[in-house]
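Wed. Picked up where I left off yesterday with Class I SAM-dependent methyltransferase. The coffee machine is broken again, so keeping this brief.
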Amino acid sequence: MCRLCAQILPEEAFAEKVLDIINGAAINQMLSLGHQSGLFDTLAGLEPATSEAIAERAGLNERYVREWLGAMVVSGILVYDPDAALYHLPPSHAAFLTRDASPNNLAVVAQFMPMLGTVEGGILECFRKGGGLRYEEYPGFHRVMAEDSGQSVVMNLFSHILPLVDGLDARLRDGIEVLDLGCGSGRALIAMAQRYPASRFVGYDLSHEAVGNARGEADRLQLGNIEFAVRDVSRLDDRDRFDLVTAFDAIHDQARPERVLAVVNEALKVDGVFLMVDIAASSRLENNVGHPLAPTLYAISCMHCMSVSLGQGGRGLGTVWGRELALSMLQEAGFGRTEVHQLEHDIQNYYYVNRKA
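Structure written out below (tokens, as returned):
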């Protein structure tokens, strides 16, 4: 049998698969609403309750809450007693759907698709004419990214991520210069600035909104060892300045990623380290079949990461640029030594520890 034929499903099986996908999309929308409204947090630890009691406790409209509860019951997320009309979120389910469950709160991730759906018309136009969208065309993007970063990066920063670089904790305590590229709302950098007051931290991002959010939080915390600026990170003049440069899920959607990597190499001191966190995937499509997040990664790429790069006249690598291409580009940028790590609890990212040649 040919390789293509082996991948073809029988008609009925394919129809069932598409129906599952459609239902999954509907459930995803409800998960996002449940997270943003606080309903999952309200239900966590609550004894079985009526829709009226749940709505009152959450401070929400009962009719909408009741319809949402129905979606949660038929999707198997809540359990239901029809005789007493009681709804319940089992603790084993709450462990993946509530703010207390961080960093395992999958409801945070569910927010991406509804948010990206708001630009569907613009992306459709890109299909017809090419080009891409601008960062500012994505309403709520920085809020969702900041929340996702808070549980995926910041929660693991000091326990798992920074320890990948031998001796880094001691150097940060003594005082070094640190740059974060594509810093977004600055949660990771602010966490480091709080923990390591002797070090100096700089965050660059293209988004005025994100940088404004980061500055506001740093000011609120009265941090004197951190600064944020709106910068095109492919055009830096910070040669031989930094001991550590970080990029958390920020390189693949750059307009000129090869130039950004070369600039990072130039900005590092001789013994400096570039810690790059990016998507755990292959550059070869066939190797990504079966990846537990592959459909989501390609969808986010099409709807955002690839598009914002193309919107700047860039290369449009996309979210799933892959390990093979990443290693090749790092080598071309002048990094002679690269270690690739994957954390046991993180199926989404590779952690690249890079040093100059």
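Quick read: The chain has a mean pLDDT of 94.
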